[in-house]
Structure formats: C-alpha cells, structure tokens
Amino acid sequence: MFPFVIPYPEIDPVLIQLGPFAIRWYALAYIAGLVLGWRYIVRLLRNRTLWAKGPGGQPPATPEIAEDILLFATLGVIVGGRLGYVLIYGLTYSADYYLENPLRIFEIWNGGMSFHGGFIGVFVALYFLCRSKKLSLLRIGDLVATATPIGLFFGRIANFINGELYGRPSDVSWAMVFCNNVVRRLNGGECPGGLIARHPSQLYEATLEGLLLFAVLRLATHRFSALEKPGLTAGIFLAGYGCARAFAEFFREPDAPIGNTGLTMGMLLSIPMWIGAAWLIWNALKTTNAQGGARPTQSQSQS
Q1: Could you tell me the pTM of the whole model?
Q2: SS (H, E, C) 227-280
Q3: Whole domain around residue 73: which residue ranges?
Q4: pLDDT confidence bin for 32, thresholds 50/70/90
Q5: In a domain, 13, yes or no
Q6: CA 63, 69, 71, 74 torsion: positive or negative?
Q7: Which of 108, 170, 208, 278 is in the most buried spot, having the most CB atoms within 10 Å?
Q8: pLDDT tens-digit profile of 34-89?
C-alpha cells in the first residue's frame, strides 16, 4: 500500500510486563539520560583544565556533589516535566480530558512530558541546591547544560518507540506510517496518525536536540573554554535548543497553531529561551571583558 515508505518497527513500548508491573522503554530512556548525564558531569568536574582560567581556577563543585545534582535534576525533570505538559499542552488542547480524569495527571509512564516544564523544574531544583550548598547557580547551570542533550536524545528515541509526536504527512523516501500491531492494540484497533506516511520527526529531534547540540556544546567547552565563562555554556544550550526545536516544528504534527499567528506551542516557547540565551551569553562575555579576560589561576599569579 505504501511501497516507498520505511516500515515502522514493531517495538512494544512495554519492555517487560510482570502482572500489574511494567517496565517501559519511556522510563528506561529517562533513566539512561539521567545516569549517563550524571557520569558525564562527573568527568567534567574531574577535568580541571576545563575550568583553569575561570573563577577561582577550579570546578564549581566536587565530583561528589554530582550525586546531589542528579537527585535534584531528577525531581525537577519528573515534577516539572509532567506539570508543564499538563498545564501547557493538556489544558490548552484537551482541558476536559484532565478535568474529568484528574488522576491521569500522575500517569507519567504513559508519556506526556514537556521539556520546557522540565527545564523550569530543573532550574528551580538547582536553585535550592545551590542555595543550600553555597554553589554558583550560573556555573552549575553550565554543567547541567552540557549533559542535557544526552537526556534529550534518549527521550526523543522513546517518543519514536511510543509512536507519539509523529511528523506531518510527507512523501519523502524515508517517511513512515506510524501504525503497527502494537499501536493498534494500544489504541483500540486504531492508529492515532492514521494510515498516512509522515516525517519521523522524533528522529529529527533526537539528531538535532541530542547529537548535534551535544557536539556543539562539547566543542564550546573543550575547544573554546566556554566553562571558564559562567553562563556562556547554558546560553549556548538555550540558543541551540530553541533553534533546533523551532526548526523541527515545521516537520512535527501534534501541536495546533496558536491563534492566527501560525506558530506552534513549541515555536512560541522557543522565544523566551532565545531571550534568556542572549542575556546569558551577553552577561558572560561582558563579565569576562570587564575582568580583563579570564581570571588567572593561583599558580599563574605567582609565576
């Protein structure tokens, strides 16, 4: 019926089912992103050369603090991501569904997480962590920003496995019909996207928000010493994610336009990210220039 499309794989969103207990790929994706991000943060903290000319000439925290960062970030992602999804998307597009079924708000295992909500949740969680540990919020924010694309990559792969956030109809040779036996079984015999060939927009986002953004940040931190300028890495991340998300929205189907603007919710929410990115980058460069360049380390000042 669709001779020129790539078959959508038969992957069950539930990896293991033991009675009422289920292990889902969606949950494993979040766990993988958080754990691998934590390990990457530990490596950055142990690489003192990345921070040598920054404030104090040393990393903003010890590797042991990374465990606290993992805990607080996990809480921020889960609480903020779910509440953000319900408040931003649920109440905007399907308010009656959640008002009539309020317990569905807590069913995070069925998908439905907002990056922007998770971002706010992590920001709030890190604020309290930095306040209690007397850490620099800007520098810890830089640290977390470097690892965030890892979680984004796995999250988008989970969206693909779930058959959610599929793309707009397309006739490109790599288009997919997001329908298989598993999808039919989980949706009462129907396929949410219909029998229509679509862009695999989840894979586009995994590439842009995950792989490409990670490479850009890696280049910034390891080649251009971005971690020595507080706020710069976080600013680059916000700018990069906003651009990647806005571009992907041209290929992604679910969000309805906001009013007569022609903008989707994802595009609209990218605007404050660009504003925040501009301020962070400007402030990082202004502060560095005002100090006459990067601050020397103790050994350099004595030489």
Answers
A1: 0.85
A2: HHCCCHHHHHHHHHHHHHHHHHCCCECCCCCCCCCCCCHHHHHHHHHHHHHHHH
A3: 22-289
A4: very high
A5: no
A6: negative
A7: 208
A8: 999 999 999 999 999 999 998 989 999 999 999 999 999 999 998 888 888 777 76
DSSP 211: I
Q: Which two tokens stand for residue 76?
A: 């921020």
Of 281, 278, 33, 232, the C-alpha closest to 147 is 33
Residue with tokens 């999804």: 85
- Cα dihedral across residues 92, 93, 99, 101: positive or negative: negative
pLDDT in tens, 90-112: 665 555 666 666 666 666 655 56
* Within-domain flag for 181: yes
Instruction: Find the angle CA(197)-CA(241)-CA(155) to the nearest 5 degrees.
Output: 55
Q: Indicate whether 3 belongs to any domain.
A: no
301 occurs within a structural domain? no
Alpha helices in the chain (DSSP H): 25-46, 65-84, 91-93, 95-100, 115-133, 137-162, 181-186, 201-205, 213-222, 232-248, 265-290, 298-302
Helix (H, G, I), strand (E, B) or coil at 201: helix
